[in-house]
Amino acid sequence: MVVSTKGRYALRVMIDLAEHQTDQYMPLKQIAARQGISEKYLENILKSLVQHGLLQGLRGKGGGYRLTRPADQYRISDILMLTEGNLAPVSCLEPGAPACSRLPECRTYEMWRGLDKVIRDYLDQITLADLARPALAGDDYII
Amino acid sequence: MVVSTKGRYALRVMIDLAEHQTDQYMPLKQIAARQGISEKYLENILKSLVQHGLLQGLRGKGGGYRLTRPADQYRISDILMLTEGNLAPVSCLEPGAPACSRLPECRTYEMWRGLDKVIRDYLDQITLADLARPALAGDDYII
DNA sequence: CTTAAACCAACCGATTGAATCGGAAAGCCA
DNA sequence: TGGCTTTCCGATTCAATCGGTTGGTTTAAG
Questions:
Q1: Which nucleotide shows the minimum CA-to-C1' distance to residue B48?
Q2: How close B132 comes to chain A (CA, Å)?
Q3: Pair B93, B41: CB distance under 8 Å
Q4: Class of CATH domain B5-86+127-131
Q5: How far apart are CA B99 and CA B86, in angstroms?
């Protein structure tokens, strides 16, 4: 598996925020309820999204989270890279991986590179806006 | 990560066999030595390759393993599917996965399906023969 | 000064990955 | 027959990761 629940949940939250975007902050409680995910678990995930600048968080009453930029400026690969650490299909291609001593005679390295590229290209080309559905009138309307 | 050591090792062994193919059986000991992989660990991997008909094993003196068909008739996806169980990029797409109750409203399902297809298409199109290098004269010559 | 919310660190149980161990059965050869 | 060699097989180990929880601390609004 390339993508664990962490990445999938992060994506769902981002989409949720894109679909319910206002000038207000959206509290985690509401996101978690809508998405049916444990609040406490989401907390961990959103923390790293905030730390890397994909979301802005505000504490206290009236606080919550909101996107820091328009939905079409988030590539899916960015969101997944951040939560998963990397999207490499094999450990040889992971960022900090030690150089393999068999590399010069390796018959498979180029194939793995190709696979990595195919995955990355696919996820680079899709943005949050492509996945978020424009909100219907009256659909989950926030007072 | 889509592919663990199990799949990577299986692939390396298959390529090794393709490159050293004769009418003889190749003992595990030699494959393991050439590839620098633990014999005992490879044993497990080769067992499943034999059980699924990708390799033929022969016990006893003079025994070992050999391919059951020409190298260009093994798709990389077949070998990896077998050792990894599945190549799904997310658990939602795994073979025995329970149907997700959120499927009708899921914004990401089609995207995951697309990713799955991109990966599968890539690995379907490559065969063992594409990765095996034709043996040079005198290269790893077996007495 | 109370209440709602994000932030933060530590912990925990189950699963998976990567092997290893100790043999049993099969086939070759003398 | 008995000794090799080699595959076949099930169980076990050990560490890391996954998925999630507990319990508390700030921060901000009213």
A1: D8
A2: 7
A3: no
A4: mainly alpha
A5: 17
Q: Is B136 helix (H, G, I), strand (E, B) or coil?
A: coil
Looking at strand C, which nucleotides approach a protein CB closer than 7 A? 3-10, 17-22, 25-29
Q: Which residue matches tokens 């006893």?
A: B60
How does DSSP classify residue A124? H
Place of tokens 């797409």: B93
Query: What's the token pair of residue A62?
Result: 């009236």
pLDDT, averaged across chain B: 92
Arithmetic mean of pLDDT over chain A: 92
Averaged pLDDT for residues A92-107: 90
Q: So what's the pLDDT on residue B16?
A: 97
R_g of chain B, CA atoms, integer Å: 18
- Rounded to whole angstroms, how far apart are CA atoms B129 and B71? 5
Partner A contacted by B120 (CB < 8 A): no
Instruction: Measure the CA–CA gap between B9 and A91, rounded to whole angstroms.
Output: 12
pLDDT of A99 above 90:
no
A24 CB inside 7 Å of strand C? no
Q: What is the pLDDT of residue B136?
A: 52
Q: CA A125 → CA A53, A77, B19, B58, distances in Å?
A: 20, 8, 38, 49
Mean pLDDT of A46-67: 97
- CB atoms under 10 Å from CB of B139, counted, come to 10
The closest alpha carbon to A10, from A65, A61, A62, A70, belongs to A65
Looking at domain A5-131, its CATH architecture is Orthogonal Bundle (1.10)
Model confidence pLDDT, tens digit, residues B66-115: 999 999 999 999 999 999 999 999 999 998 888 888 999 999 999 999 99
- Give B-chain residues touching A108 at CB under 8 angstroms: 8, 11-12, 15, 131
